[in-house]
TrEMBL record:
Protein name: Esterase
Residues passing through the membrane, by range: none
Coiled coil: none
PANTHER family according to UniProt: AB HYDROLASE SUPERFAMILY PROTEIN C4A8.06C, ALPHA_BETA HYDROLASE FOLD-3 DOMAIN-CONTAINING PROTEIN-RELATED
Alphabetized UniProt keyword annotations: Hydrolase
InterPro entries: AB_hydrolase_3 (IPR013094), AB_hydrolase_fold (IPR029058), GDXG_lipolytic_enzyme (IPR050300)
UniProt superkingdom: Bacteria
Family matches, as Gene3D superfamilies: alpha/beta hydrolase
Keyword Transmembrane belongs to the record: no
UniProt cross-references to SUPFAM superfamilies, sorted A to Z: alpha/beta-Hydrolases (SSF53474)
Signal peptide annotation: none
Amino acid sequence: MNINMDMDPELEAFIPFFPKADLNDPVAARKGLAGLAAAVPAPDTTGMEIEDRTVPADPNVAVRIYRPHQAQGGAIIWLHGGGWVMGDLDTEHPWAARIAESSGAVLISVDYRLAPEHPFPAALDDAYAVLTWSYEHAAELGIDPERIAVGGHSAGAGLAAAVALRARDRQGPPIRFQLLNQPGLDDRQETWSALHFTDTPWMNRDKVTAAWRHYLGSSAPASPYAAPARADDLSGLPPAYIATAEFCPNRDEDIAYALRLLQSGVSVELHQWAGTFHGSQAILSAEISQRQHAELGAVLHRALTG
């Protein structure tokens, strides 16, 4: 089906320069993402303390901690995007540093294990281990254990939602807030946007299918901790901000998840960004991308200081 995409003109101009959406070769995809990340203008980290640490776990998890000069005790466990297949601390650096600076929160970026070499639940185990460690070592880290959020982009946002579910069900560390930007939540791909966005930039139905295949491995059907949209009960979860891109296969599952959270008594702020596509906020020269980044920082600041 051909979709009439009324794309933001500043974003549309960059579409010819985006690589083809393909996750069939994970090694090549990782190299491609690293190249794209290297081309992003470096963020201003003047006055920000950046520290690489290792979180003791089985196995250990590498993290990069960003402490902005105006940090006020709030923190976020931050999970990078990349379809559970791509990404690391270096590719996420441009975005992690910007969010830390704009929010004033200590940001703990997690180098979780990647699929298909490490399918579910490896990434979730890593993320949850970092949440637990951060809570238990809050005094050492200079953060308030009652003001820890979870968040991320894309697959990382889906992981953050899963961390919130696991923390609720295990009565684990309290989570103050969920910051979910274009999350991957539902492996079933039955929504209108998942069915029809077959040729959208950067992320399309085939790429989403490949990402879930790599991530789930032999885990079928998917657990709600892999695909949070499968959870029957969303009550008792932390308040959430959910952002969607208009021309993104994840769009409708994200909106449906926001509605289910609301219907379960969870406070939600939902922003559907018109004229955007999955990951287009990386085009920093576009005015709409600048607004997206500013909003992520402002929302997180308000959630952790209000």
